[in-house]
């Protein structure tokens, strides 16, 4: 151990040991279940991890070292491995394992690497424990070369750039370290996600200018510096210009919310700079998607086809469907009975024996199910594990009163509107909807007329300004919001045909403002 | 019992195989010109029983089949086709009219699932298009392409859908070719497929024991970035390299770093005057 600590700008080394009495250590380890605790301990005892996670072993010559201890130190690695494997095989309390780790085999401290492993294990055990938000990496226009004092004008986003950002972990880390202030120390740990195509970076921030264990060990007057330390996860999806950043959580005692926010901003600001290279600047742009579910994140902002073909559009992205032009067999229409399977036909035969009312009901149920399939596709199933837990929507449409057309339709809709505020989301499109429901193709003139009307409406809106726009905010919460909506459609509670598109989750956002029945702000999921 | 189950299973498999065969035969028969000739009533003998509902049905079916065949032909030959679709959203712009762009991809003598770009017309005063939904992978700069060739109706910028589709298709095809060339490199170097690599150390030992003469020196070849324009190469002697590929597969740069700094020898040995990555594949494959 170094005798003196000198402030440096280097990062915290992985091998740095934290005293087991530190509240952060017990907090991190206490999170884990007994099974995961034992499995990571066996990982620590692996030959390859000895440099960073060596246990406290008794030297062969001094026989009586710690023999009177409750947890006597082992003599060799193999002995310890056997011991923990035994613990794994039999039942027992978590406390026993925890005590053995903290007071026995790692009494000289747990390295930051070990803590990072434990924390990641917790993330795997509880995949919903972190709240993630997705950011898009956007290229910036190269700075103007005139140099005439325009250093303060922020560079513009280059929409026309064809550059796809590239990511190199170690270069990124070096650059990020340079961005972090010198009085903040951080420990970085990269890990490949076990099941998803993600590279996880765990950043453990410590408010101390020192990177030695003396800096971490509690200075007497102040309590441990871990009180203000925080963990931030950054996930890099493979082959996708997005970054997922977790909201920080506090380790140890509670810290001021503002402080933790500022640290996060520091990181968020540092990431694009760390990604940038000379003459290639990037910035991060929020994509209005925040969820606890990483799988959903990868689906919506990953490298695959599903990025902006969610909901019913999923039929275009479905990789399992074969659609070769060399196959001349007529494709079955997506919602036809042949695709549904044979069971459908049998039911139809039985239905004939039922009373007319029952038959009607059955038809309605079947229709609702088909409509749900048309609107949601294969997405939003309760058991697909890709749920968002919260969706916030602001409705900015004007109150329907001053709409000259479609009054009857509105009344009808309000009658079957089952949720507060839902009656108001599509009023501007009443006219559109009604015309469409009359069936048949619309002529070119019709479209022109409608567009004209839209322009007029827009102009009116701008001119009046005094139109009453009620402040309607909808928040959907649940374990899988869109699956819940799908179930409501399937049971005929929501009329699936008139339901606006954003209720199917096809925009891939969790925060949005609705205008004219469409989510604005995030301009479509296309580009 | 087990044998009975097996029998049922095999019979079911046979039934489904026969069913699919029947479908293929039906579609071929329906589209054949001779069938059509048989079905169409001769114009000279206008008798009433010629317009039976069954015949009408068959004729309609035949027409659909022919239309489908024509679509398949266009898709197979043009590689870039348009279609119309309907947005199910009742509040969709422009009555939910969607123009779809289908990009066919051929890789390893097979048509892959096509990529789709779905366009709509959201601008009230013009017929300009905008990308609404798409299934293009994230490593294709679709946003940049759309900003160049499908700008919003502000200023003088004109939209050029044909140009957009051509450029987009080229990017997608290039991307798949780059992936293909990396796979070819792996094959030529005697490295297994991706699955073999995932299997772990055992697989690698086998590879070294297999001792492909040219490829024995290369341990790993993987695409290193999202666009697969960079390939990271590892030699058996611990030397690590990075190959940067241009748009057309030409080698822009290959750098290898060994224990004692840059290893120009390894680079020369691998390239040997090759200008494109395909040349390297050929070199490796020939030994």
From TrEMBL, chain A:
Q: Where is this region: Disordered?
A: 298-365, 395-465
> Which residues lie in Acidic residues bias regions?
421-431
Note the coiled coil stretches, chain numbering.
none
Q: Which GO terms describe its biological process?
A: CENP-A containing chromatin assembly; chromosome segregation
- The protein, known as: Centromere protein Chl4/mis15/CENP-N
| Biased composition annotated in UniProt, kind: Basic and acidic residues | 409-420, 443-464
Concerning InterPro entries, the annotation shows: Chl4/mis15/CENP-N (IPR007902)
Ranked from the top, the taxonomy reads: Eukaryota, Fungi, Dikarya, Ascomycota, Pezizomycotina
TrEMBL record, chain B:
Keywords annotated in UniProt:
Centromere, Chromosome, Nucleus
GO cellular component terms listed in the entry, alphabetical order: Mis6-Sim4 complex; nucleus
Q: What is its main location?
A: nucleus
Output the superkingdom of the source species. Eukaryota
Return the InterPro entries for the record: CENP-O
Protein location: Chromosome, Centromere; Nucleus
Name the PANTHER family on file. CENTROMERE PROTEIN O, INNER KINETOCHORE SUBUNIT MAL2
State the similarity comment.
Answer: Belongs to the CENP-O/MCM21 family.
The identity of this protein, by name, is: Cenp-O kinetochore centromere component-domain-containing protein
Q: Which organism is it from?
A: Lasiosphaeria hispida
């Amino acid at each position: 151990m170094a005798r003196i600590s000198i402030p440096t700008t280097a990062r915290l080394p992985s091998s740095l040991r934290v005293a087991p009495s530190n509240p952060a250590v017990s907090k991190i380890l206490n999170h884990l279940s007994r099974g995961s605790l034992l499995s990571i301990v066996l990982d620590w005892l692996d030959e390859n991890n000895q440099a960073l996670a060596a246990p406290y072993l008794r030297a062969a010559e001094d026989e009586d070292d710690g023999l009177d201890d409750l947890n006597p130190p082992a003599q060799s690695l193999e002995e310890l491995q056997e011991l923990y494997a035994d613990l794994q095989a039999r039942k027992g309390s978590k406390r026993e394992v925890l005590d053995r780790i903290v007071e026995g085999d790692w009494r000289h401290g747990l390295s930051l690497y070990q803590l990072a492993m434990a924390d990641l294990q917790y993330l795997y055990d509880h995949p919903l424990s972190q709240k993630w938000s997705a950011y898009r990496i956007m290229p910036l226009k190269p700075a103007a070369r005139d140099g005439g004092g325009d250093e303060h004008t922020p560079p513009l986003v280059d929409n026309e750039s064809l550059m796809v950002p590239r990511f190199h972990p170690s270069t990124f880390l070096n650059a990020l370290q340079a961005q972090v202030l010198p009085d903040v120390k951080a420990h970085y740990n990269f890990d490949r996600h076990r099941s998803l195509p993600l590279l996880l970076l765990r950043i453990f921030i410590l408010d101390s200018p020192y990177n030695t264990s003396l800096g971490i060990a509690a200075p007497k007057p102040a309590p441990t510096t871990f009180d203000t330390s925080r963990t931030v996860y950054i996930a890099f999806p493979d082959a996708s210009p997005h970054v997922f950043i977790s909201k920080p959580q506090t380790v140890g005692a509670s810290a001021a919310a503002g402080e933790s926010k500022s640290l996060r901003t520091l990181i968020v600001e540092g990431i694009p700079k760390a990604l940038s290279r000379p003459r290639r600047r990037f910035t991060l742009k929020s994509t209005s998607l925040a969820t606890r579910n990483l799988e959903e994140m990868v689906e919506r902002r990953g490298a695959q086809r599903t990025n902006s073909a969610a909901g019913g559009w999923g039929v275009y992205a479905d990789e399992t469907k074969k659609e070769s032009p060399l196959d001349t067999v007529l494709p079955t229409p997506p919602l036809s009975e042949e695709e549904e399977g044979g069971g459908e036909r049998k039911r139809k035969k039985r239905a004939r024996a039922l009373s007319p009312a029952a038959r009607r009901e059955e038809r309605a149920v079947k229709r609702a199910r088909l409509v749900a399939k048309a609107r949601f596709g294969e997405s939003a199933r309760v058991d697909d594990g890709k749920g968002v837990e919260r969706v916030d929507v602001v409705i900015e449409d004007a109150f329907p009163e001053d709409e000259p057309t479609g009054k009857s339709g509105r009344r009808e809709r309000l009658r079957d509107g089952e949720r507060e505020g839902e009656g108001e989301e599509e009023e501007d499109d009443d006219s559109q909807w009604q015309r469409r429901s009359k069936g048949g193709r619309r002529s070119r003139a019709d479209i022109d007329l409608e567009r004209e009307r839209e322009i007029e409406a827009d102009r009116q809106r701008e001119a009046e300004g005094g139109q009453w726009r009620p402040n309607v905010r909808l928040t959907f919460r649940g374990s899988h919001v869109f699956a819940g909506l799908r179930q409501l459609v399937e049971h005929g509670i929501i009329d699936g045909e008139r339901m606006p598109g954003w209720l199917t989750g096809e925009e891939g956002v969790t925060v949005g403002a609705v205008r004219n029945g469409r989510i604005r702000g995030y301009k479509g999921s296309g580009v | 019992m087990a044998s009975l189950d097996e029998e049922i299973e095999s019979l079911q498999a046979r039934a489904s195989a026969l069913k699919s065969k029947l479908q293929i035969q039906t579609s071929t028969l329906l589209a054949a010109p001779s069938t059509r000739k048989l079905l169409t009533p001769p114009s000279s003998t206008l008798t009433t029983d010629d317009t039976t509902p069954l015949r009408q049905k068959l004729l309609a079916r035949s027409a659909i089949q022919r239309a489908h065949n024509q679509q398949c032909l266009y898709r197979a030959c043009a590689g870039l086709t348009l279609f119309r679709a309907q947005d199910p959203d009742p509040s969709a712009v422009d009555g939910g009219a969607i123009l779809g762009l289908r990009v066919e991809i051929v890789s390893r003598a097979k048509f892959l699932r096509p990529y789709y770009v779905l366009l709509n017309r959201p601008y009230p005063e013009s017929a300009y298009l905008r990308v609404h939904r798409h299934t293009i992978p994230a490593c294709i700069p679709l946003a940049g392409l759309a900003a160049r060739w499908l700008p919003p109706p502000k200023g003088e910028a004109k939209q050029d859908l044909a140009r957009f589709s051509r450029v987009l298709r080229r990017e997608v095809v290039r991307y798949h070719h780059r992936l293909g060339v990396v796979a070819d490199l792996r094959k030529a170097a005697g490295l297994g497929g991706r699955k073999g690599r995932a299997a772990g150390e055992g697989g690698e030992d086998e590879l070294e024991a297999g001792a492909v003469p040219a490829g024995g020196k290369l341990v790993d070849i993987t695409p290193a970035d999202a666009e697969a324009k960079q390939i990271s190469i590892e030699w058996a002697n611990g030397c690590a390299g990075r190959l940067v590929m241009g748009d057309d597969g030409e080698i822009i740069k290959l750098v290898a770093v060994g224990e004692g700094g840059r290893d120009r020898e390894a680079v020369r040995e691998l390239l040997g005057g090759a200008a494109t990555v395909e040349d390297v594949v050929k070199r490796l494959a020939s030994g």
